[in-house]
Structures are given as C-alpha cells and as structure tokens.
Amino acid sequence: MRRKALITGITGQDGSYLAEFLLEKGYEVHGIKRRASLFNTQRVDHIYQDPHSADQRFELHYGDLTDSSNLTRILSEVRPDEIYNLGAQSHVAVSFEAPEYTADVDALGTLRLLEAIRFLGLDRTTRFYQASTSELYGLVQETPQTETTPFHPRSPYAVAKLYAYWICVNYREAYGIYACNGILFNHESPRRGETFVTRKITRGLANIAQGLEPCLFMGNIDSLRDWGHAKDYVRMQWMMLQQDTPRDYVIATGKQYSVRQFIAWSAEELGITLRFEGEGLDEIAVVEAVRGDKAPALSPGDVVLRIDPRYFRPAEVDTLLGDASRARAELGWQPEITVREMCAEMVAEDLAAARRHALLKDHGMAVPVSVEG
Ligand code: NDP
Ligand code: GDR
C-alpha cells in the first residue's frame, strides 16, 4: 500500500518542498488549499496532476484551518498515515495587526486537526507533525537555544504557536497520539514569501539593480538570525515522523548572522559593494563599487537602502541561535546547504525575474515590483 500524507499549507514555501520530497519517496500526497480569487498555486504548479489522470498521486482539497467540519471531512476521506500541519498565518509583523485571526489559524487550527484525528479514531494510525518555531524562545533565556530552553514568546504569532506546541504535547501525553513538534529556526529559499526579510532583500536589491525600484526600506537590520535552507528543513520534518517514539526536535544550523550581513552578501552576489553609513533611523547603505553586468542601473554613490520605522515590530526578537544536537545525534540530520549558497541561489532567481520584468517594462507593460512587509 502506498503511504498517504496530508499537508496543510501546501501552497506555502515548506509545503511545496515537502510535497516534492514525499512524492519522490513514493507517497500519495494530499494538500489543503484555501479558496482564493486567484489560483495561488504557483509553488506547486510543477507537480500538479490532473484529477482525471490515471494513477493520480497529488491532490488538492479546498479547506481552511478555521473550519473544523471541513478539516474533519478531508481527514475522513483521505485517512492519511501522516499529517504535516504547516498551514499558518506565518508572518510575525502581520500577527500584531491580525492577532485574533492568527490565534484562530495557528493555535486553534492545530487543535481542530488533533481533535479530528481523535474523533475519527485515527489516533493509533495517523502521525502528526506540528510546525513549531524558534519564535517560541522570543526574549531568549539562554544561547544557543535547545529543546529545553524556556519559552518567552514576543508576538501574537509566537503566543499562538506556543498553544499549538503544548496542545501537540498534551495530545501525545493524554491520548497517545504520535505527534511531534519541529522547533524550526528561520529557513528560506527562492520560494520564500516576498515579505520575509531575506526574500525582501534579494528581490528588492535585484529590482533596484535593474532599475525597477529606487530603494529598499527596512526595519531592524541589527536583528540576528540562524538561517537555513527550506529544502534541508523539510527533509527533517519527514525524518521526525519515521521514529519509533515521537519526540520534539530543534532544527537549526548553529550559525548566526545579522540582517545587515545578509544585505551585504546579497549585494555582493549582484557585483555591488555596499557601505553602511549613519546610525539608527539615519542609517543608509551606499553603493561603493559595481562590477560585472548584473546591476546596470546602479553607480557609486547611489543610496539603495534606508530605515523605515514602519517595519519595526512592537516587540522584537533580537537574536536567535539554535543547537540541533539532538536531531544530529538521534536522527543523523544535518544541513547540507550553507547560508551563502542559499543567498546566491535566491539572488540568482530574483535577478532572472527582475531582468524579465525590466524587459516587459521597456515594452510598456506593467510589472509587479514593490511589496510591503
Ligand atoms: P508560508 O507563509 O510560506 O505558508 C503558509 C501556508 O499556510 C500557505 O500555504 C498558506 O496558504 C497557508 N494558510 C494560511 N492561512 C491558512 C488557513 N487559514 N487555512 C489553511 N491554510 C492556511 O509559510 P512557510 O512555508 O515558511 O512555513 C510553514 C510553517 O512553518 C508555518 O506554520 C510557519 O509558521 C512555520 N515555520 C516557518 C519557519 C520559516 O522560517 N519558514 C520557521 C518555523 C516555523 P496561502 O498560500 O493561501 O496563503
Ligand atoms: P521572522 O522572519 O520574524 O524571524 O519569522 P522575518 O524574515 O520576517 O524577520 C526576520 C528579522 O528581520 C527583521 N527585519 C525585517 N523583517 C521583515 N519582514 N521586513 C523588514 O523590512 C525587516 N527589517 C528588519 C525583523 O524585525 C526580524 O527581526 C520567520 C517566519 O517564517 C515565522 O513564521 C517563523 O516562525 C520564524 O521565521 C522562525
């Protein structure tokens, strides 16, 4: 019998990589997709299979984590061996603007799935992965952070994810459900949403280099993160569900860099040397030199980055650094893609898109450029 996986958040960054990974492993992959006025399936279009085709192994179901009747129906139809709960309102800054919705999706959505597992009598057969997060550590109590570091969430997103973390542990202890939390540190890729910091930088600088945008406006560029590649992290999500006993694991690279450093690397990939000048709200990044043909719109002296306080958060997570020793020792996991390799990959894809858009613009066509986030 082919194994069946159900992924919430399949249209997101991780969902798309995980779906690819599981299809390669021979799984039948089901995904829950929200109804929207546009298709919104760009990240999974390349693996989409027509429902009329014979031997269909990839299927999307309309659904929403705020709707328990619909979740229960999908679970009863699919009866998956493994559920990966990746669906979430996943943007920390947005969670301050939509705290109640974030709690509904990220916290109660997890409960709804676990209850559906119980209600349908899948508690002995279906394994459950919960997308937990390093944001749980928030105001960090020790460095590096491990599975035993105390939590101190700093946003409505993180508080909602804290509920989801504990309800997962609780259903494991109370009902014996195979449920585990992957406490994942930031992970990125060319498929990262445009309003998360790394993608905002690689896409923004590529657009500026091609003359599509004048300047990047950023928030706290002193923030420190432990960034890995999403491809390495979804492999670990699957590995976690293959153990005899469910357990929670930190997934991280163990290396930490500032947002400013990521900006400098991204600029280097475009042949631009940047100089940071000024302090606080007056800090800017100025082009010092341009090499090669990737940034025809830029010259020395151009200002490509300014600070805009609108991107500061009401409460910030200043520093995160993970220790994935448990995952390494028990599962043999370690990341294969370095942050520099990832940055190069992201810039290359965003530059290719920016070049296409510049060509369209030259021919008088509208192109998507600025994003808030
Ligand atoms: P994305 O934001 O790229 O994807 C989120 C997914 O959730 C999208 O498919 C989105 O659908 C879906 N979704 C949002 N709201 C709902 C809803 N109400 N009902 C059903 N689905 C919904 O996130 P990532 O792929 O980056 O992250 C995956 C998970 O891992 C998330 O839970 C995130 O919080 C968590 N996480 C991510 C980390 C990271 O660094 N990437 C680190 C730690 C945890 P749509 O496409 O329609 O918007
Ligand atoms: P984060 O990711 O909040 O860590 O949550 P994000 O990339 O949004 O921010 C990282 C850090 O960069 C700072 N920053 C900015 N961030 C954004 N988005 N835009 C800016 O202009 C900007 N300027 C500075 C932020 O303040 C922050 O310190 C991500 C999400 O994927 C969560 O779902 C996940 O749980 C965590 O990672 C681990």
From TrEMBL:
PANTHER family: GDP-MANNOSE 4,6 DEHYDRATASE (PTHR43715:SF1), GDP-MANNOSE 4,6-DEHYDRATASE (PTHR43715). Gene3D superfamilies: NAD(P)-binding Rossmann-like Domain, UDP-galactose 4-epimerase, domain 1. Pfam families: GDP_Man_Dehyd (PF16363). This is GDP-mannose 4,6-dehydratase. Its EC number is 4.2.1.47. InterPro entries: GDP_Man_deHydtase, NAD(P)-bd_dom, NAD(P)-bd_dom_sf. Belongs to the NAD(P)-dependent epimerase/dehydratase family. GDP-mannose 4,6-dehydratase subfamily. Its cofactor is NADP(+). It comes from Paracoccus spongiarum. Keywords: Lyase, NADP. One of its GO terms (molecular function) is GDP-mannose 4,6-dehydratase activity. It catalyses: GDP-alpha-D-mannose = GDP-4-dehydro-alpha-D-rhamnose + H2O. Residues 6-346 form the NAD(P)-binding domain. Catalyzes the conversion of GDP-D-mannose to GDP-4-dehydro-6-deoxy-D-mannose.
